[in-house]
Structures are given as C-alpha cells and as structure tokens.
Amino acid sequence: MVTLAEVAQHAGVSASTVSYVLSGKRSISTTTRRRVEESIRKLGYHPNAGARALASSRSNIIALMIPLRTDMYVPVMMEIAIAVATTARTHGYDVLLLTGEEGPDAVRRVTGSGLADAMIVMDVELDDERLPLLRETDRPSVLIGLPADTTGLTCVDLDFKATGALCVEHLATLGHRDIAVIGEAPAVYERHTGFAERTLDGLRTRSRELGLRLLHRPCEGGYDAMAATLARILDERPDTTGFVVQNEAAVEPLLALLRQQGRAVPEDVSVVAVCPEQVATQASVRLTSVAVPAQEMGRHAVEQLVAKLDGRGSDEVVLLAPELTVRASSGPAPVQS
User: Residue limits of the HTH lacI-type domain (predicted)?
Assistant: First the structure.
C-alpha cells in the first residue's frame, strides 16, 4: 500500500504539504497542489477516509444528485457520474449517489444530516425548486446545468445556446433554408430543463438572424414516435432539407425512416446531432455533431467543488465551448427544381 511519505517523496514536497493538500487546512499554491495531486494519481494513493474524517470533522463524501428519468438519455448521465466519482477519488472523496426524484427533500436530507460535505446537482431546470435551499445552506454545491438565475451559484455546463447556434450556422453555410429540430421528449420541455431550453433558444435566435425557417417538434424517441413526428414535419414543411436532432433515441429511427422514404443523407437531407461522440460515430450514417462533453463536465464540477471545500473557490459559471465535427451526414442543400 502506498504511504503518504511515498507520495511526498514522489512529488518532491514534505509529508505535511501532502497532508495539507488532502485536508485543505492550509492554502497551498496551485502548482504545488497539482504536483501532489498528480503524484497521488500516479501512485494510486488512497488516504484513510476514517482518519481524515476524524481529523477534519468532515465525512469526505460528495453527494451527487442525479434523477434517472425515463425521458432522459441515461448513458450520458452515467458518464458524467463516473467522471465525478473518479475525479473525486483523486481528491480523497467518495461519492454518495442520490437517484430519487425527491427534489428539495433530498437537499434537506443531505444538509440536515451531515451525510456529505458538499453536493453536485444534475438535471437542472431553469427555475429549479432546489435552488433556494442550495443558496441558503453553508454546504458547498455545484450545478451541472444552468438555471435562469445563477446568482449565488456555481455552475458547469456545455454552452447549449451556442451549441444550437452552431448547428444552425453549419446548415445555413451549406445552403439549407428550411430546418426542422427533432427535440427531446415533451416532458423535458414541460419541466423547462435548462439544456433543452437553451439549445432551442440558440437555434431560434440564430435562425432569425440568418433568415431561416425553423420548426421544432419534441419527440419521445423510438421508431413509432419518430415516424409520427417526421410525417408531421414533412406535412407542415415539405421543403425541409436540414434536421437538427437533440434526442439520442430518435437518431437511428430518423435515419431509417429517411432511407425508407428514398431521401438520401446527405444528398437530399442533412442531419446534425447534439449527442455523445459514440452515438454520432456508431450511427448508420456517421453524424455531423456537437458532442456532449460528459467527462469534462463531471471533472470540472468536482474541481470547482473541491476548491470551495478548500476555501479557494467562488461562485462562477463555467460554460464549455461547443465544437462541431463534420462527418458524412451533412452536405450542400439540394437544388430546388
């Protein structure tokens, strides 16, 4: 088993410095802290959680609130959760996973019981009912998501508004003028979930600026729901040549339905997706996409939270810039006869 002294020797610092990095009892320079943390990772050092808790009056546990809803794409949520757990371990913290949909009651349970030193909250709505409690408690918290009002909060998220704008710009550059958005399940919009609402805002705003016609239709996902949604879109906007999909469960059904209708991708229609990289690259047509940086979001959230626990952090919003990767599913708009 690796000892604290071995970590100190590897990092070229004193054993007390390693202890201070782990406990947060003293301010350590960023350079030294990172060197110690890198040594901890390389050597696989695991501090004794019980001893640390007794010494610091902390539980050394971070609560992760991750409601697993049927209308959300669970693999992305779990990828974020895994990134949170692995990053937390490098800082000497374990993760308590709260998967119920209890909302404020779960926040009260954590803050009132001492179960965890801090919280990371996911599935954030624009007017999330958990926010007043998070603002009032003295326990640090970080949101993975962006509410309408970020005052007194620390948030980490993909810049979904910029993501929507980027998708529209790509299709506009290729000459597409009629664009349909196949969105998340209706319940996601009914809850005013932040990522979906902000993507839609970016899509609509940039479409207006570029003079494009945009149609948004939520979709439950799956073949039957996608068939009904696509039929409605083509009935309402028969000249649609560009699709933006923000619904992982609708991707493959859409591509299959377009093939059945004799609409070639990308010669007749272009498809751009907001989805995990794996979904885009493993689709039957490799998708032009903006990736959801799940691992980066989870890592940033933990680093922001640890900084707060160590007295170094402040309330801020970290928005990750979207990156669009062009693949086989997008091309020039067909010439209208």
Answer: 2-56
pTM above 0.85, yes or no: no
Q: What is the pLDDT of residue 54?
A: 41
Q: Is the four-CA dihedral 66, 68, 71, 72 of positive or negative sign?
A: positive
Question: Please, are residues 204 and 169 in contact by the beta-carbon 8 Å criterion?
Answer: no
Query: What single-letter amino acid sits at 52?
Result: R
The answer to whether the CB of 129 falls within 8 A of the CB of 84 is: no
H-run or E-run covering 318: strand 317-320
pLDDT digits (tens, 9 = 90+) for 262-274: 999 999 999 999 9
User: Any idea which residue has 């020797």 for tokens?
Assistant: 9
* 76, 108 Cβ separation under 8 angstroms: no
Q: How far apart are CA 307 and CA 154, in angstroms?
A: 11
Tokens in use for 237? 């906007």
CATH of 56-158+294-320, one of 3.40.50.150, 3.40.50.300, 3.40.50.2300, 1.10.600.10: 3.40.50.2300
Residues in the chain, pLDDT under 50: 49-51, 53-55
d(CA 309, CA 286): 43
CA 171 to chain centre: 24
- pLDDT tens string 147-166: 999 999 999 999 999 999 99
Cα–Cα distance, 45 to 41 (Å, whole number) = 7
Q: Name the superfamily (CATH) of residues 1-47.
A: lambda repressor-like DNA-binding domains (1.10.260.40)
The Cα 173–Cα 324 span in angstroms is 13
Q: What percent of the chain has pLDDT over 70?
A: 94
| Mean pLDDT across the chain | 90
